[in-house]
Amino acid sequence: MAIGVKVVARPSGIAQDMYVSAVVKGLGVTMRHFFENLFGKKHIVTVQYPEERAVYPKRYRGLHRLMTRDDGSVRCVACMCCPTACPAHCITIVAEETGNGAEKRPAIFEIDELRCVVCGLCVEACPCDAIRMDTGIHAPPVEHRGDAVLGKLDLLAHTGKSEAHQGGLGGEWRGAPPVRTG
Amino acid sequence: MGALVIVIPLALFFVLGLVATLIFGWVIPALGGDPNAWYGALIKTAFILLGFVLPLASVLTWMERKQSALMQDRIGPNRASVGGVRAFGLMHFVADALKMLFKEDFVPAKANKFLFGLAPVLAIAPVLITFAIIPWGGGVCPGRLSETLTDETLATCLETGARFQVVHLEVGLLFYFAIASLAVYGTTLAGWASYNKFSLLGGLRASSQMMSYEVTMGMAILGAFLVYGSLEPATIVMAQGSNPLHWGIVTQPLGFILFFVAAIAETKRTPFDLPEGEPELIGYFVEYSGMRFGMFFLAEFMEVIFTAAVVATVFFGGWQLPGLHAGGFLGTAMPHWLVASLGFVVFAFKTFVLCWFQLMIRWTLPRFRPDQLMRLGWKQLLPLSIANILITAAVVLALMPTGGK
Ligand code: SF4
Ligand code: SF4
Predict the structure, then answer these.
(1) Smallest CA separation from ligand 2 atom 6, residue
(2) How far is Cα A142 from Cα A153, in angstroms, rounded to an integer?
(3) So what's the pLDDT on residue B404?
């Protein structure tokens, strides 16, 4: 079926041309709001920012943070998943040896918060829950662009321990008899 | 803050009215002067401009932001504080004034320096001058301030007493039209002298708009002249009396609407703000900064006040209130000084409310297109105002064959 053209008649006529009814109607709306807000602040939605804060939803994506392990070392294993996933190319990682032969760790971990598009893909990409965006802090204003590049220490500043366990639950879990159902 | 917005203005207006009553009814006569002489007129000018118009214009800049905020479910400016006193953001206009004074006064390189500097003055001066004809009270009878007068004694006494009006011109409102139309020079010259295409367009729009609506404005108010038989504002107020059924709004409802619309168009504010439509051409003052811009801004607000004052005078009975007469209010007897001060309060409050109403309109309606503007002015308002004159003339002739009075 071809797309039809629906012609909407332009309202015309003397009443329309005099604007009077529209003006009265419009004034009715604005006056109602004015008086209800003047005597009782009924509809006001303003949040007085520094004193009052809007409550962010639980899953609000704020500044990034890096998580730590039980011993306080950074969880990140420099697997490069997050810089690969990042559509804005704003994560820079330089890996280094940890010395235990099995893992790497980031020597440099930088996120440019000005380039970040707050998509959360880095969090999704991370295989070991090392990076999160749940600080609830929105990007602070900066004077120089460089100040918006957060390094490893900045990212660790809001750290917290992850409940996930590195490498699963470990040997003890393996020692326990497997639970089989059915 | 609900009730405060009514109580505080009333209290301030009363203080102002009292000051005027005392100056013209007591101080000047006691010094052996004549309140209606040239120096009296100077003091009256200073009183009405410095005491009423300029402060109100500054407060209107705050009111406009606060009122638009409430209409749009916001709070509006409330952060500026002097020594921790915020006063609902009232300090913002002080901050504004300071900002304007200290801003760089920029003149474009190719602008016509002389006309560029002259334009803001030409915009603001006519508005200031027109306030001369506005009667802001019934006048005061020197030396009899504490007596309770009757209407007759007051009328005879006022023939020589102090009028609350800078000049008493028989052609009062014609003078207003003559002077007010000069304001268009300010805007057009500002547009032309800035050497900027956008400001020139704004200036041209302003001149075409103001000329078109001037015609309607004059025609619309003619009906009121016919009914009250005078061009002199104070005489028109007296002719209306204190009964609201004889006020211009009842005898000339169509004339009132037409005049009000045309007068709003003259102030160049939304919905008639084509000369300064921000999205298309920032306006005839696009090159102005600092206090020169401030003068255009202030002129606009003073035009709002002036429109309100004229409408209050011609259509809302000026300083008269039902029940208020020379001897007091309703049955209560009052001394003359109180009645004279209350007259100012009534006038000032009517002006204030009409200013509020204009702000209401300004923040409610969207802007017209230029063709709609011209069509409204020439094809709708003008024929209606001519019809209004003809009908009024016929009715006046039928009811009052001896002439308006
Ligand atoms: S939120 Fe998106 S853009 Fe920002 S760092 Fe993570 S992946 Fe990159
Ligand atoms: S994905 Fe996780 S572990 Fe891999 S580099 Fe990024 S933060 Fe580190």
Answers:
(1) A82
(2) 18
(3) 45
